[in-house]
Design a protein that fits this description.
Elements lengths: L1 E7 L4 E9 L2 H13 L8 E10 L1 H5 L1 H11 L5 E5 L3 H16 L3 E5 L2 H7 L6 H9 L2
Parallel strand pairs: 2-3, 3-4, 4-5
Antiparallel strand pairs: 1-2
């Protein structure tokens, strides 16, 4: 699994892109890298691109990953997942439901345009699209 990210401090936005097959160690390393970034404190919105990752292992231990999130990320933010396959959509639907029940704000959608509309960032479309394409 590979995870690329970029924090756009001026927009309070973290953009992250996952590729490959979901695996725990790279996921935990990614969380540490992001939360140790000095600009992490500005982030209140996240766009997570999941269009190129196999999430089967994520699904198998979703409750463990939620527990890890609760223990290691002491911040609330609005995270929107971009998904484009039936399995990843179903997995993110369950994940969103569980996290939203804990009062976190998560959503999923099928296109970048929907993600940006939800975040009220439509005017940033070309720049964010370029960032994602170049990750």
């Amino acid at each position: 699994m590979d995870v690329k990210f970029r924090i756009v401090k001026d927009w309070n936005l973290l953009i992250q892109k996952y590729t490959g097959v979901f695996s725990y160690d790279p996921y935990f390393e990614h969380i540490k890298r992001v939360t140790n970034d000095p600009d992490w404190k500005y982030v209140d919105k996240i766009i997570t691109d999941l269009r190129n990752i196999d999430l089967e292992m994520f699904y198998k231990n979703m409750d463990y990953l939620i527990k890890y999130r609760n223990e290691n990320i002491k911040k609330n933010y609005y995270n929107i997942f971009i998904v484009d396959a039936p399995l990843s959509t179903a997995i993110m639907h369950l994940y969103k439901k569980k996290l939203n029940s804990l009062r976190y704000k998560y959503e999923y959608c099928s296109t970048l345009e929907f993600a940006l509309a939800e975040l009220k960032m439509e005017d940033k479309k070309e720049k964010i699209k370029s960032i994602l394409e170049n990750m």
